[in-house]
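Support reply, case 0932

Customer input (verbatim):
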Amino acid sequence: MTRAAEFWNAVYDNDTAPWVIGEPQPTIVALEREGWITGRVLDPGSGAGEHTILLTKLGYEVFGIDLSPSAVAYARRNAVEKGVPTARFEVGDTLALSEMPDIGVFDTVVDSALFHIFGTDPDARAQYVTSLHAVLRPGGLLHILALSDAEEGFGPRISDTIVRESLGAGWELEDLRPSRYHGRVTEAIADQVGLPSSGPVDATAWLTRIRRR
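Our regenerated output:
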């Protein structure tokens, strides 16, 4: 079951999000360096805004979208503090992207830790995939970094089978491989990971590259 905006607002208002680490995920940084991010970029579930900020600073046209108004407010403050006030963030429903005014079409989508949120809700997952397909140009690339069920730990986790089965018709899978996801231990997850509520933690993840047909 997916969470309402109020849940995510509380996470940002109380600074308990284990995924807010103060920097982009190294895996996403590597994707850009390797040339896998091009053109106009969508950052769905942009959260604290680290990837939108990074890519905007590098000269990309980037659109960060999050369901949570608190997340968007956090990201905008973060962008100003990091000297990238032009980074663009808007409140929006990633399950209905094409209904957002003037959203346009994207060449690349970078999903960092959003897809796995829908892992136990097949209807929401299908709706999300359809929503992405509607705003990604034919031939455009979708990158997904999602926590893997290969180990226990913080956050929702999914199998590679769920990724493959969710992105069938209308998509061409190019790569799916193990990766790492960096987080931090907060009070919200300390019991899950068996560590004190401070400091970094990382986890296994799936990195997927899929092309829209």
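We compared this against your earlier run and they match. Two observations from our side: The radius of gyration is 16 Å. Residues 122-135 form the longest helix (14 residues). Please reopen the case if you see a mismatch on your end.
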